[in-house]
Amino acid sequence: MRAQAPAPVATAPVAPAPVATAPAAPLALPDHPRFTTQHFGDEFGLSVVTVNALAQDPEGFLWIATQTGLYRYDGSRVVNMTAVEKIVGHYIDELQIAPDSTLWVKGSYGVAHLVHGTFERFPLPPITTEIRGSGQTFAISRSGDLFVILAAGIFRAPIRDPSHATMYTTGAGLPGEPGAIATGPGDSVWFTAGRRLGHFAPGNANPVIDSTIMLPDEDVSGIRFDGTGTLWVRTVTRVARIDLAHHAVVYDDAGVAASDPDVGRPAKDHAGNLMIPSVAGLYIRDHGRWRGITDQQGLTSNDVLTALEDREGVIWVAGSGAGLDRVIGINDWEAWTTAEGLPDNAIWSSLFGWAASASSSPSPSTGILTPSCSLLPKKRPNGC
After folding, report:
1. For residue 355, is it within any domain?
2. pTM, whole model, 2 decimals?
3. 29 is a domain residue
4. What is the pLDDT of residues 123-144, one digit of tens each?
5. What is the 3-state secondary structure of 51-69?
6. How many domains in the chain?
7. How far apart are CA 276 and CA 356, in angstroms?
8. Strands of the sheet with 78-80, listed across from one edge
9. Fewer CB within 10 Å: N-end or C-end of the chain?
10. CATH code (residue 214)
11. In this predicted model, what pLDDT tens digit does every residue of 64-106 receive, in sequence order?
12. Phi/psi at 208 (nearest 5 deg)?
């Protein structure tokens, strides 16, 4: 007799038991990307010089001021401009391109400008020819006046007629020893004197001193207006914004290291962002925060004295006794390796905002990096 099949048992669908899972922690790119950096000057004998200042003229020549002379780079060769040493000395510490495109050079004992291919001395008062040490000690207004900080005060003279010069001293108009001087908006010229801030308004022969603002109680390395019209003051240990509307000093230097004495003049990139040299790298103002470039990003030395962005977008960075570095494509390209925190140097896949390495499984917890505007060697898209 055939055995009967067991009667079917009614069953209800069983839902899988929920499994508690913790959300995967988001991964971010390492904090210190590496940029394309080239050390400049080995073939020209400039690999270990100390560069004090940089300037690029409208023709594209790069001028390099060092402790042992002035050099001009034309893209293929470097020329030592020895003629200027007879005028200002071999220790060159400041360069400026005037509003009329003239190159001005300041050395240990004089100021000169390049006129039709020849350096000419600018006459200073014979009694007060001692120029203040390195720092930010001269400025040229758009109206054609030269301002120089001397041991006795601020010297001002029309470039076309130096005989009509004026001296401003602590006994006649200045509240203290002048520290730094720079041009500002509307052809104004701004300076520090003691712990006070002052300026020459366009067309005004007498300085205006702000009696409310109190600057840090230390030597001022430099002052600079950024692209938004904000005035910044750099001292040996501090960086501050000056709120001119409310006559207030706003310290904004979180994470920014100190600078060497008498150096550390602020510079601007083409976007108007401030660049601050320090003993721990170069700091660039980037969307309201400071972005550091150090030896972790490829610099030869962290002891940065000056920086310049040329018209090709290359940032030239001078380190003490380390010559020059060229940081290329800083706003376009960044790179990460195992040295910067990636799990492996062999990248087998990448997508905007994501990357996976050969030693990683394609899972959110090991091999995929979270979205970012800066990813591996790549060109940044518009809007980043």
Report:
1. yes
2. 0.79
3. no
4. 988 755 567 666 899 999 999 9
5. EEEEEECCCCCEEEEECCE
6. 2
7. 35
8. 51-56, 62-66, 69-73, 78-80
9. N
10. 2.130.10.10
11. 999 999 999 999 999 999 999 999 999 999 999 999 999 999 9
12. -110, 125
Q: Where are the beta strands (DSSP E) in 129-200?
A: 138-140, 145-150, 153-158, 166-168, 178-183, 189-193, 196-200
* 20 assigned to some structural domain: no
Question: Can you say whether residue 318 is alpha, beta or left, with left for phi > 0 and alpha for psi between -120 and 50 degrees?
Answer: beta
From the number of C-beta atoms within 10 Å of its C-beta (0-12, 13-18, 19+), residue 17 rates as exposed
Q: Does residue 176 sit in the same domain as residue 237?
A: yes
C-beta separation of 51 from 70 below 8 A:
no
What's the sign of the alpha-carbon dihedral 319, 71, 267, 184?
positive
Q: Is residue 46 part of a domain?
A: yes
| Residue at which a domain ends, from 331, 346, 363 | 331
8, two tokens: 């079917």
Please tell me whether residues 269 and 348 are part of one structural domain: no
Radius of gyration (Cα) for the chain, nearest Å?
A: 28
CA 93 – CA 98 distance, rounded (Å): 16
Q: Which domain holds residue 90?
A: 36-331
Q: What mean pLDDT do residues 366-372 have?
A: 36
- The answer to whether 268 touches 224, Cβ cutoff 8 Å, is yes
Mean pLDDT for the chain?
Answer: 82
Q: How far apart are CA 384 and CA 379, in angstroms?
A: 10
Q: Which position has the higher pLDDT, 383 or 294?
A: 294
- Residues 114 and 74 both lie in one domain: yes
Residue 264 CA to residue 216 CA, distance in Å, equals 16
**Distance of alpha carbon 160 from alpha carbon 261, whole angstroms:** 34
Virtual torsion, Cα 213, 194, 132, 47, nearest 10 deg: -50
Give me the amino acid identity at 89. G
